[in-house]
Amino acid sequence: MTDTTRRTSDSAALAARYPVLHAPQRWEWGGIDARFTTELPPDELVTNIHLVGFTEGRVVLCRDARGHWFLPGGTREAAESVDSCLERELLEEAGARLLGPPTWIGHHLAVSEGPTPYRPWQPHPVKAWLWGWAEVAVDAAPTNPADGEQVVEVRPVTPEEARLLLTHHREPWWSELVALAVESRTG
Q1: pLDDT of residue 170
Q2: Of 87, 110, 129, 177, which sits most exposed with the smallest number of CB within 10 A?
Q3: For residues 55 and 156, is the Cβ–Cβ distance under 8 A?
């Protein structure tokens, strides 16, 4: 079996185990059509970075002022590296820092129907939302910059509780994303 055949077979198996995550997505809030893949995107397409952060086996979730639970991460700034964006977003939203390098588990290839990019330096209309996991330490309060989500609570929870809270407040595929991160971490 060639590496390409093995990757295709592995991707098909993951898609079968996580069908909601791999299904075509319509993100109405941003006028975006997206599709998840375990392939890594070219760096120049990455506009957003999010992380399933683990601390002592628990998943770090953030709750905003509206009561919505989410995984820390956000928009990449102009000329910012993926690593710098991840470190900044973890501190801003979760008061967390990386304890080791992230493991990237895939991305959503997103196509915007908007007439212009979300930020002038971003690629448009095609972009990528990068997803990964890493071990983190939550040892500060979120910095809550004025132009970001206002985080009112950071809570490490069991993976099962994370899946439940994320499914209730966010996209239905977030639950499977957490499960994929757990599988990648323990596999």
Answers
A1: 67
A2: 87
A3: yes
